[in-house]
Amino acid sequence: MAGDFHTPVLANETVELLVWDPSGVYVDCTVGGGGHSHLIIDRLDPQGTLIGIDRDRDAIEQARRVLPDRVALHHGSFADLLARIAEDRKGGIHGILMDLGVSSFQLDEPQRGFSYREPGPLDLRMDPSRGQSAGELLRQMSLDELTAAIRDLGEDNQARRIARAIVSARGRRPIRTTEDLAGAIRECVPATQHKSLPRVFQALRILVNDELSELDHGLEQAWSLLTNGGRLAVISYHSLEDRRVKQFFRDRTQPADSPRLPIAIDTPPPEGRRLTGKPLRPSASEISRNPRARSARLRAIEKAISQG
Ligand code: SAH
């Protein structure tokens, strides 16, 4: 199947929740190594349609290699592409999947600069053909901007201290590689504080790829494109993402288990129904097989059948 490129997380659980009409139209917004897409297409009838999106060209190439030709693949960000896809598909979409974050391939490829463990250029872009690399960004950010990013996007309570160390290091010589950055962080936080390294890399990754606004726009787009009864499933990997997904779903639903009584005559019915109360988490055995699954949370929502 997808080989070593990426192991799909919560694979059966996701597809089980997502695919409800085997002749419908489905969009995998984060096709990656094609793991989830493979399982989706396996469940569809010959009339069913699957469209895959990824902002990483390497992922699109990989998906093309492993997925059947009938899967249409598009390179670009899902926030941009969902609207365009919808124009061609006036009937609405039956299921949309977002498996957020980075693939194992991206993390393991040193040239992409995603990992503080691998020496490489400090890039961190999912689409290196667009925007600024993390290295370019780091050259321009003020101490306050850096502090805010590390605190708010990396959720590290030593943000100021780390930001100061970065500013001082870049005053001595440019920070161009993952090692330059990791070295600057290690100098200021004791070895026991090794969690700061992944946190700073997370902050830069979110910033460089504009991940939170991609998610906000993507959720809005996806919701508006779903047909009645259509489903949206989202797998998130850190609390900043999961909080947004949870709030977005909450705003469109009533708690699945508490009927609203009494119902006032002019109260509009909820737009949707949550298919997961608490998010689904990977089992211990999945985590032991695939440690990168450990922080995953899957939430799913269904658009109300009739809005009237
Ligand atoms: N579900 C896939 C793995 C997805 S990994 C599988 O089973 O193989 C996440 C992928 O999402 C990465 O390839 C990344 O490039 C892509 N991605 C992340 N944010 C994106 C966005 N806003 N638009 C399009 N692709 C995105």
Give your account of this protein's structure:
The protein has 308 residues and is of the alpha/beta class. It has two domains: 2-99 and 211-303, Vaccinia Virus protein VP39 (Rossmann fold, 3-Layer(aba) Sandwich); 124-209, DNA polymerase, domain 1 (Orthogonal Bundle), CATH 1.10.150. It is 43% helix and 14% strand. It has 13 helices and eight strands. An eight-stranded mixed beta sheet has the order 3-2-1-4-5-8-7-6, sandwiched between helices. Strand 2 (49-54), helix 3 (57-66) and strand 3 (72-75) form a beta-alpha-beta unit. Helix 11 (211-225) packs parallel to helix 12. Bound molecules: S-adenosyl-L-homocysteine.
Structural class label: alpha/beta
> What is the strand tally?
8
In the sheet with the most strands, the strands line up as 3-2-1-4-5-8-7-6
Which CATH class of the largest domain?
Alpha Beta
Concise overview:
With 308 residues, this protein is α/β, with parallel strands linked by helices.
List keywords for this structure.
308 residues; Rossmann fold; DNA polymerase, domain 1; 43% helix; binds S-adenosyl-L-homocysteine
Task: Give the arrangement of secondary structure elements.
Elements (H helix, E strand, L loop, with lengths): L10 H8 L6 E4 L6 H9 L5 E6 L2 H10 L5 E4 L2 H11 L4 E7 L4 H5 L25 H7 L2 H10 L6 H14 L5 H11 L7 H13 L2 H15 E11 L2 H13 L1 E2 L17 E3 L9 H6 L7 E7 L5
Parallel strand pairs: 1-2, 1-4, 2-3, 4-5, 6-7
Antiparallel strand pairs: 5-8, 7-8
Helix pairs in contact: 1-2, 4-11, 7-8, 7-10, 8-9, 11-12
The structure holds S-adenosyl-L-homocysteine.
